[in-house]
Automatic annotation (TrEMBL):
<dbReference type="InterPro" id="IPR027417">
    <property type="entry name" value="P-loop_NTPase"/>
</dbReference>
<feature type="compositionally biased region" description="Basic and acidic residues">
    <location>
        <begin position="1"/>
        <end position="80"/>
    </location>
</feature>
<protein>
    <submittedName>
        <fullName>ADP-ribosylation factor-like protein 9 isoform X1</fullName>
    </submittedName>
</protein>
<dbReference type="InterPro" id="IPR006689">
    <property type="entry name" value="Small_GTPase_ARF/SAR"/>
</dbReference>
<dbReference type="InterPro" id="IPR005225">
    <property type="entry name" value="Small_GTP-bd"/>
</dbReference>
<comment type="similarity">
    <text>Belongs to the small GTPase superfamily. Arf family.</text>
</comment>
<dbReference type="InterPro" id="IPR053254">
    <property type="entry name" value="Arf-like_GTPase"/>
</dbReference>
<feature type="region of interest" description="Disordered">
    <location>
        <begin position="1"/>
        <end position="91"/>
    </location>
</feature>
<keyword id="KW-0342">GTP-binding</keyword>
<keyword id="KW-0547">Nucleotide-binding</keyword>
<dbReference type="Pfam" id="PF00025">
    <property type="entry name" value="Arf"/>
</dbReference>
Amino acid sequence: MERAKEKRREKGKEPEKEKMRGKGKEKEKRKEVEKKKSKEKVKEKEKEKEEKRSKEEEKRKEQETEKEQFKGKEKKEKDNNSILTKPPLEPREKNKQILVLGLDGAGKTSVLHSLALNRVQHSVAPTHGFNAVCINTEDSQMEFLEIGGSEPFRSYWEMYLSRGLLLVFVVDSADHNRLPEAKEHLHRLIGTNPILPLVVFANKQDLEAAYRITDIHEALALSEVGNDRKVFLFGTQVTENGSEIPSAMQDARDLIAHLAADVQ
């Protein structure tokens, strides 16, 4: 009797044990699934990090390439412009040059090369030093010397002005705040030579904020430069790269050639 009861009790426990074993297996499966998901998440994060690093590396390489291209372009432009970072020991007595001066950012280099090529030629880099350009006309050859407009190079202006054929002074018509500074330097320069011909380029006339020619004449006090001096004021602009220079710039070039021939 006792054995029969014991067997019945054991049989009753077997389904419970099976249930326990089944629950244990399910729990293990869930753990495996969660572990697998966790591994996949880690892999995804690593993949994202790798992609991010790859993109950053590509971006860095692109930036380096752009820098190299810019340096190459800048070097080429400097070579083409015949820029000298150091001046000759003395201004040359013979074959006098036409000086191109003005504050930094006025557009001297762009104007000068546009006159030389008879085509609009934009300049990217400022002139850090001296820029010599020869312009051929039907009757002669004109040699221009541009001197950088930033403060370190202004000390050379008067030195070279004393032996210049004439002065071409370029101002930014839209930079109203710096016109008084430009006026001060201009009057200091021409004060040393009462008969030196003066040609002023009121540049960047295409900009909306640009002063008109009459306003530039007044702002630079050109009526006070002396009665014995030949003074000319042109409105200039360097617009679309490669296009033909405006008629005003062509007239200015012809006038400069005529003045230079008279002085020589």
